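Researcher: Structure prediction, please.
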Amino acid sequence: MAQDGTDEAALPAATDTKPAITPLAAQAMYNFTRCVVEFSRLGAEKLLARDFRSDEYRQAMRRYVKGHGRCAPRSELGSSQLVFAGNLAEHLLIDKFSETALAADLARDRSAMPIEARSVAEGIALCIVMQAPQDSAALFRTEVMSDAEKAVLANIAPKLSGCVRQGAEFRTNRTGLRALLALAAYRIAVTDTVESAT
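Model: Predicted structure follows.
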């Protein structure tokens, strides 16, 4: 168990794949990002279109968060960039796809045009959402840090062994894993949209 009382699972790190966040803080951040997307959907899409490994991404992230203080007046929300970005991705996915439609999109065969992972963590997350499309889509419909979320993640957990290279030891918790999966699912959905438009 992690220090915040959440379950841990083996998964590699990008920068902060094991964010220390309480259930209450996780729910507050989720609600905050929902407000952010409602006010600035295009801004969220532009942010997530950037390469998260770049300085430009980190700078854009800071600007974007600071520009939406009205979504959390008189409060100091603390969270990782991973959790914030993952929450943005979830809200964008929920607005665009029904659970069934997202599951169908994630389940498509992409062997002819595979998506290149930009980090080990992203590679594993992409693998998981494509191997467990229905559970991944269902995950984003559960309340953050709820028993329903925990149950869906338990269904997803067996996919970890097939997506993590032998000998690799990485750690995350429920919050980090959910964020990684949301970002992976969003990248797949965006890639599909770009391909269908060309």
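Model: The longest helix spans residues 174-197.
Researcher: Thanks, that helps.
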